[in-house]
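Sequence in, structure out.
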Amino acid sequence: MQHLEHSDDIPFERQTVKGSEIDALWQDLGRAVGSVEIGLARIRFEPGNRPTPAHDHGAEEEIFYVLAGDGTSWRAGVTHAVGPGDCIVYRPASGAHTLIAGDDPMDVLAFGERRPAELCHLPRAGVLWGGPSWVADAVAGGHPFEREAKAGTLPMPERSPRPGWIVHRDAVAAVEVDRPGRRYAARRLGVAAGARSSGLRHVTITPGQSGWPRHCHSAEEELFVILAGTGTVRVGDEEAEVRSGHVLSRPAGTTLAHGFRAGPDGLEYLSYGQRQPNDIVYYPDSGKVFLAGVGVIGRIEPLGYWDGEDLPAS
């Protein structure tokens, strides 16, 4: 199936700066499954290491989900404890941030937007990243990651109480749906942690049941990561088996509806997507359309039912 891959088949690439704590293995899961306007990386890093310089995006919102390992979120010189099941939202222009692994290796998912006019500031390195490249005159002092390493180790003050932009999965109330053939629970992690331009949901589907009704988006792109269990995903008329580690991308405007069904051991996954006020969601099984920007839902008459006289020319 197109846009569906298992993480075991996607190679890791190491990004490191010699003599510094910047050292991590990266999997570009988003590119591997053909995502267009949003991205997803899986990052693994050893105790005491961090994957990136401290950086602050000017426009892009990032959401991290911790799969394994305890560590520290560092933002604008303030530190907070993070661990498995935590969702961390870094809003743009909210302070330079990074993650540091604690006594055990960390394994995290990093979800983010791809904005062509994005500016990203690395204050310790004295570098600004504009769009697809580093600002030319800044690179003369060396690669930005190397410049960050020359700034020395991050100051690590005592951890502060956890803020609202870090939430644990189990602390977020679940919306439960129980209808004939459809039984699942969804937790809006992104909303709970203050995300605004993107969203992250944690979904569990009861064994043998279906989840969210099949649908397709006109403007919003979605990414799915299977965390546990087994099941099937249907995209258009095509169906494929999924299990822990599978990643699925659903670009906007394909007209192909998608939906999940759990196997005998249930299905657990993360759903990441954009929030576009101009988005239209179509549910083919019920013939309903949801207008996201105005919060209106209703049934429509598909084009196939018309006589063709009023159809657009192209």
